[in-house]
Amino acid sequence: MATEQQSISRRLRDLKRRLKKENPILEHVVDSFRELDRISRRLGFFDRDESHANRTSWWPLISVLGVYSSGKSSFINHFLSYRLQATGNQAVDDKFTVICFTDEKAVRVLPGLALDADPRFPFFRVSRAIDEVHRGEGRRIDAYLQLKTCPSEALRGKILIDSPGFDADAQRNSTLRITDHIVDLSDLVLVFFDARHPESGSMHDTLEHLVRRTIARRDSNKFLYILNQIDATVPEDNIEDVFASWQRALAQSGLTAGCCYALYIPEQAAPITDPAQRARYEGKRDANLRAVRQRIEQVGVERAYRIVGLLEQTAHMLANDVVPRLEQFLGAWRRLTLWADGAVFGGALLLFMALTLFAGYWQGIHLRIPAWEVLSDYPAVKAVLLGMLAIAAGYAHLSARRWAAARAAGRFARDPKVQELMPNYARAFRKNTRWFRSILRRQPVGWGRRTDRTLAQIVEESLQYVQKLNDQYANPSGETCPQPECAEPGRPPSNP
Ligand SMILES: Nc1nc2c(ncn2[C@@H]2O[C@H](COP(=O)(O)OP(=O)(O)OP(=O)(O)O)[C@@H](O)[C@H]2O)c(=O)[nH]1
Ligand SMILES: [Mg+2]
């Protein structure tokens, strides 16, 4: 355990060192996360090997999702200028590939376990999340994930995720769970569509899961919708019609404003013979590829806001969710323990009274138990008997506390916020009900006015970080879309 903690603090030190060069504001954010970790450990909410800093990707994360065989992997290879991912017209990718930079010359492929067990990557402990939706599947993490390292300079300081296409029949809950996880963590989500197959089942699934369900998100501006393979429209020269019908499909799924691009991958397309048509298609393709690239390059900005946002969110969560729930738990535990003690000791007293009355040991208000009087010559035996009685009473009280703790914890089992972090809450409940903790204590262990002030200070700091980021970036939200195909907010997406 101690080594786990050392390795967490070593990791955070490494992170700070790297961020110092890249973005000094984030370097300080690491310290604030450390403070939150300390508070969480004192509350018993975190183990020594846990850190709030592990709940996010510190590197900008770009995911490529969408229709199968739409060219997701081809786009990644084009972006990296490296033939990293296999491409082909059948469903090629059957698992998610996390791609990160390496200084080595060669590409390495590592199993999903490497991602599941390493807190520096965005899939840390994702097997648990998979287990929640599909019991036992978490063990098969290698079937869902792999890690590839690649020496392409375009990748330096970023993480890319390639994904299996959305296939109407093959979608399983675990895959959707991972997709949701990726969407939550990503700073930029490229959703790919295929200009060749506007009506496929995969298209329908993509519209449902990655358009309809995501448009109401607060961070919906991180989604870019890409109609790929528009070179397929060259023979009929009907790019406008194809684009318009794609836009209608998006609009039917609720997307009335969003960043939409039409393009094709230069290396994959057959040459266009007619010079005028070639110039038109290539002009469109290059402008859109440039715009997508620009958004990818900008993603470091979004990442910085995301991390600062997480800091504030975590401080709020501890003060407004975790601590009030622990207080409620303590209240329930106290009441149940008092009831159980009352029942056990009251019952024992009643039984004693009934037996002694029945045996006729009461003379008025005086109780005379002959066997006890015989023992008056043996004080040591009396002391041992009284000691045993005290031990039995202590044991009964501890059992009542344990029973009450289990019952009180059970009351929270259906609370979705507790369910999400069940192991953490269970640990904090245990810490608060250890045998030497008084049931009369109202404040959770590790909580007090000072901790409350520290959390308020962290929230204040996070606002200051946001201001500093605003000062640092001329266009902090990265919301504008400097590309020709982008729809303006509030207006339907434009035609090409
Ligand atoms: N003509 C043309 N073909 C393309 C383009 N992009 C990709 N392709 C071809 O389309 C097929 C599918 O491309 P992939 O990159 O494997 O597609 P994917 O989305 O990664 O597919 P899955 O991983 O199976 O979901 C391959 O045969 C590519 O050569 C494009 O812009 N134009
Ligand atoms: Mg692929």
What does this protein structure show overall?
There is one protein chain. With 496 residues, this protein is of the alpha/beta class. It is built from 15 helices and ten strands. Strand 6, helix 7 and strand 7 (223-228) form a beta-alpha-beta unit.
Structural class: alpha/beta
Rg calculated over all Cα atoms: 31 Å
Described by strand count, sense and barrel closure, the largest sheet is: 8 strands, mixed
Mean pLDDT: 87
Question: So what's the overall shape?
Answer: elongated
Note the main attributes of this structure.
53% helix, binds guanosine-5'-triphosphate, alpha/beta, 9% strand, 8-stranded mixed sheet, binds magnesium ion, elongated, single chain
Topology:
Blueprint (H helix, E strand, L loop, with lengths): L1 H21 L1 H19 L18 E6 L5 H9 L15 E6 L6 E4 H5 L9 H8 L11 E6 L8 E4 L10 H13 L2 E7 L6 H12 L10 E6 L10 H14 L6 E4 L12 H23 L1 H61 L2 E2 L2 E2 L2 H5 L4 H32 L5 H5 L1 H11 L16 H24 L24
Parallel strand pairs: 1-5, 1-6, 2-4, 6-7, 7-8
Antiparallel strand pairs: 2-5, 3-4, 9-10
The structure holds guanosine-5'-triphosphate and magnesium ion.
